[in-house]
Structure formats: C-alpha cells, structure tokens
C-alpha cells in the first residue's frame, strides 16, 4: 500500500550545512552533565538554557551555580534560562503542597550579585493542556540538544539515571536561529515573565496574553534564511510546532511516509497519534522493516512500585502497556515474520525517556516530541532533522542505535505483555473504573 501523505514539507525544508565531525553523540546522562558544565565554563558570548524545568536538587544546583559563576567571571556573557511557567510554580507530582522551583530561583537571584534571569513561558493557562517542551541549549556557536530536563536523574548525579539522547552540534547559524526564537519569539511576549523575581502575576491575569502568545507560536518558525534548500551533503534543519497539524507533526508523518527500507522509532510513552499509526501501517504494507523501542512499564518515569501507596499517576505506565499490547496483537503476523520488531528497554531501576526517529540510511530526527497526541496537539515542541543524503554520518548513527538497543528485549508475541488481571489490585480497579465511564480515550489524548 503506497502512502497517500503529500510530501509537501520535507522538500522545502531549509537546512544548515554541517560537517560530519561537527556532530558529537554523547554516550550517556553522566557525559551529558559533564559536557554541559564544561560548555558553560568555556562560554565567552552567550548561554541560552531552554528546558521544561530546572529542578531544585543537587544536579540542578550544580548547573545553576555554574551559570552564576560564569556570569560573575565574565559579566558580558548573555545568559538566559527559559522554563515552563506553570511547571516552575508547582511541586513534584504526588509530593504534597510545595512552593515550586520559582521560590528557589528568587532566592538564588537575591543571594548573588551576578544576574541569571529565569523566564517562565506559559503555553497554556493550565499545565494539563500544554507546556513548554522545547529542547536545546545554545552555548556560543554550539547547540547541546537532548530531551532531558535538568535534575538529578536526568543528569545521572547519583545512582539512578533517566536514559535520553544527547548531541552536541557545532554550527553557528543553527545556534543563531535557536537563540533568535527565544529572544524574539518568547522572551519579548507580554505573557512571559521572570520567575526569579518576586510578586509574580497570576496565570489568570495573563489569560489574554497567553492566548496571543499561543496564536503567534502556531505561525512561528525558526529563522533558516542562512540555510539552503536541497543541500547536497549533510545538513540540519530546526523544526517548531504547537497545535493541530503543525509543521513538526507533519514532518514526522512525512518522514515515516518517505521510508522505503527501514524505520526506527523511539518513544517513552506508547500512545501513538492516529496519523502516525496510519503511516506506520502504510509503511508496513510497503514492506518497510520497522523497529519500535519503548520503555518497559517499570522503566517509565511515572512508575510506582506496587509496594508503595497507589496514586492515580501510577496508572499511566499501565495505560501505555495496554496501548502497546493492542498494537502488538493487531500486528502479530508482522512480528512473527520479523518485519515489525517491538523492543522493551529496561536497565535495573533506571528510567527511559528517549524519543526520535531514524529513516532508512538518510534521516535522523532529534526531538523531545513523545510521538503521542499530547505532543501533536498541546505542547510547544521542537526538533532537529539531520539529513545525510551521502551517508557521511552513518558510523555515529550506528553507534547511538547500538547503545539504545543494548538494554532491550524483543517482544515475540503480545501475550508477553501483562493484562488487567496481572496488574496490582489498585491499578486494575482504577483502570476498570475509567474504562466503564469511557474516560480512557480522553486520557490517551492528553497524557
């Protein structure tokens, strides 16, 4: 079955030419932390940190202290931190009432002579309906790109880590483009305010400004005028997307539609949007070999052991497993033939947060997009698309894939995955209840 998806976007993408040795693949979370601190220490012109959150813990403190030290040593440094407005003003899920990271930001600003502004971006008036999910740290003329946020587990500060992807790309036009969006598309908005200063406005009072910002972001894009279309060699294209049918979501679907031989897809939360499922089905019908890597439910960052008190959030990993089991059952003949390979990632008590795509021997997509309905409709997302038409960057690509598959096991049949009967009683009871009142479909759309 051919794909009927119109490839209207990929041929028009402008990319920045890059040499193969300008893209470094980092080998893990600890190396990511080391590289980030090293880049901050060496910075001479600019540091733009963009993440869902900068957490008040040991690793977060280490990064924040490094930023203040860099500013104190080089006052001319342009340092900006951008995080999600709503996420910064609440505590950890399930940890009771807490002041949130914004109180810490304010204390840090009051206790330092050096100024490191922290801006909060409200993508929606409620966190449930959209957050700032942009990724990428711009440091001088390089971009350090990962789906990770900044805390102990993402940075492997102690025993546990959360597995993600980590790339350092040395390319000034790309760095300029990503800074430009933050500086002119986010920070200047009336909806965006500094979280490190006291007397924050209420989200309610910003409702109209938030609506204006979201409307503008739906039509925003990275400035790629310094790039070119149809580069003959290796190139990287930044993509931006928020809302229904956005350019990033369309590019993801077009990438799957372009696959002729092999497609690898990673997501921590198996809950594929309908357009992605359709393109995967068409790719399978074309004979494309597909590998999907997803975290085992115990490697999900929302997983809570059955020995601990039940919280509603603990049901999420089981919802994702139910979705994966349905998908596997529907495609069991292709699993049997080896055309479709579903891989579960698990490494002890560590967690899995990895996302992205590899298409044939040409395209590699770096992104924080979870490839789920929420990412396709609600959150503000971005990605970097590496296009390698001459196969100049295949070895680093293979090395990264090998590291991802190292802790995976292949699902031979859908029967390997648990059902409601095998779930902890509290989880099973909750899932039966939401199924009876038909809330399950809504949950899949927003989680």
TrEMBL record:
Q: Does the record bear Lipid biosynthesis in its keywords? A: yes
The UniProt record lists the PLD phosphodiesterase domain at 128-154, 348-375
A GO biological-process term? cardiolipin biosynthetic process
Top EC class per UniProt?
A: transferase
The source's superkingdom equals Bacteria
InterPro entries assigned: PGS1, PLD-like_dom, PLipase_D/transphosphatidylase
* The protein, known as: CDP-diacylglycerol--serine O-phosphatidyltransferase
Q: Which gene encodes it?
A: pssA
- Key words, A-Z: Lipid biosynthesis, Lipid metabolism, Phospholipid biosynthesis, Phospholipid metabolism, Repeat, Transferase
Q: What's the Enzyme Commission number for this chain?
A: 2.7.8.8
Molecular function as annotated in GO: CDP-diacylglycerol-glycerol-3-phosphate 3-phosphatidyltransferase activity; CDP-diacylglycerol-serine O-phosphatidyltransferase activity
Give the stretches traversing the membrane. Answer: none
* UniProt organism field: Pseudomonas karstica
Might you report a single GO cellular component term? cytosol
Family recorded in the similarity comment: Belongs to the CDP-alcohol phosphatidyltransferase class-II family.
Family annotation (Gene3D superfamilies): Endonuclease Chain A
